[in-house]
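Quick one, probably user error.
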């Protein structure tokens, strides 16, 4: 399995080597992806089709292919907050392999008109091959990720790019509700408070 060793991966690259095939990676985030809300831009096919169970990762019958040219954007939301450890990717074949993949954390609104002006959180070159590549990210850059945007800016020579499988490794936690912001006053001003309906002259606590 191709791996990227240039980003401080160290010994953690080998912590899944002997996991049973049926189980896959202990920290595979497949069940934590919000598949109903995945968005693909400039793509032929269903956006969620490349989010497959671990045991289907090598299949090539179902894929996502770029449409008008060899660029593609894939926005993938999670059902909670993720500390990302690695991207899993199977693409190609041959010249239809993307030259690289750029990852953007929590950048839900990026499109082609602006993504090239934004610095990616991290990016990787993609080698040609029929295996699933494993790209270890700098976890400190993805500490509380609720969505990942993948940008494939060009192929390795073909008119289109093709993606067969996208997966992620990491730690998932339930998304915390929006914080309640309380403003504490040293001296209350009745004029600043809403009056409760039906209580004349009384103010809300």
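Nope, works fine. Designed sequence:
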């Amino acid at each position: 399995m191709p791996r990227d060793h240039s980003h401080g991966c160290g010994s953690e690259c080998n912590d899944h080597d002997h996991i049973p095939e049926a189980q896959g990676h202990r920290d595979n985030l497949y069940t934590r992806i919000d598949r109903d809300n995945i968005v693909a831009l400039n793509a032929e096919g269903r956006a969620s089709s490349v989010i497959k169970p671990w045991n289907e990762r090598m299949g090539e019958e179902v894929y996502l292919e770029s449409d008008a040219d060899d660029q593609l954007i894939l926005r993938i939301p999670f059902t909670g907050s993720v500390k990302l450890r690695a991207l899993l990717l199977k693409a190609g074949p041959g010249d239809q392999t993307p030259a690289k993949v750029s990852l953007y954390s929590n950048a839900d609104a990026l499109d082609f008109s602006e993504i090239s002006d934004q610095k990616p959180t991290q990016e990787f070159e993609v080698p040609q091959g029929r295996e699933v590549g494993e790209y270890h990210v700098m976890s400190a850059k993805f500490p509380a990720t609720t969505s990942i945007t993948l940008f494939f800016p060009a192929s390795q020579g073909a008119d289109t790019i093709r993606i067969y499988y996208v997966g992620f490794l990491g730690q998932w936690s339930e998304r915390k509700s929006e914080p309640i912001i309380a403003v504490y006053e040293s001296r209350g001003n009745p004029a600043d408070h809403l009056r409760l309906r039906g209580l004349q002259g009384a103010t809300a606590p």
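The chain has a mean pLDDT of 82.
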